[in-house]
Design goal:
Blueprint lengths: L1 H19 L7 E4 L2 E5 L12 E7 L6 E9 L10 E5 L22 E2 L4 E7 L8 E8 L1
Parallel strand pairs: 1-3
Antiparallel strand pairs: 2-8, 3-7, 4-6, 4-8, 5-7
Length: 139
């Protein structure tokens, strides 16, 4: 009986370990005059515990404009579970471009003040959704 319980516990831990160790490939450096950025697996549900960072760089003297075509993230107060954060520069230290984004409302287009925009997408380990897709262009 005790051996059965131990085996069940080991099996549970193995399954839990596999589900927590999802390999998420996302983010990267994007450049040029336009392109698309989207959450992992879009339009299917994004994975648990994702942490993706994109840096969009356009020609010097221009700005980056991000226009959302689809948006659905887990909603929460202060977007503390799943969120998309847009920053006006090339690091997570740069000024935020508005508040963190989450929920089901399609955000308005966002424009940087320089030729670089930093985008960070995070998800927790509970609810998954279809995520987002946005077009970026040079202004």
């Amino acid at each position: 009986m005790m051996e059965t319980s131990i085996l069940k516990l080991i099996a549970f831990c193995l399954v839990l370990g596999v589900s927590l160790a999802q390999d998420v490939t996302c983010g990267g450096a994007l450049s040029g005059s336009s392109g698309t950025v989207q959450s992992p697996n879009y339009p299917d549900r994004y994975p648990h515990n994702a942490n993706c960072v994109w840096t969009i760089t356009t020609e010097p003297g221009t700005q980056v404009r991000l226009t959302f075509s689809s948006f659905l993230l887990e909603n929460s107060n202060n977007c503390s579970y799943d969120s998309l954060m847009l920053r006006d520069g090339n690091s997570n230290e740069a000024a935020m471009l508005g508040e963190p984004l989450c929920g089901a409302f399609l955000p308005f287009p966002v424009t940087s003040t320089s030729n670089v925009m930093y985008i960070e997408f995070k998800s927790d380990d509970v609810i998954r959704a279809s995520g987002f897709q946005a077009l970026w262009s040079t202004v």
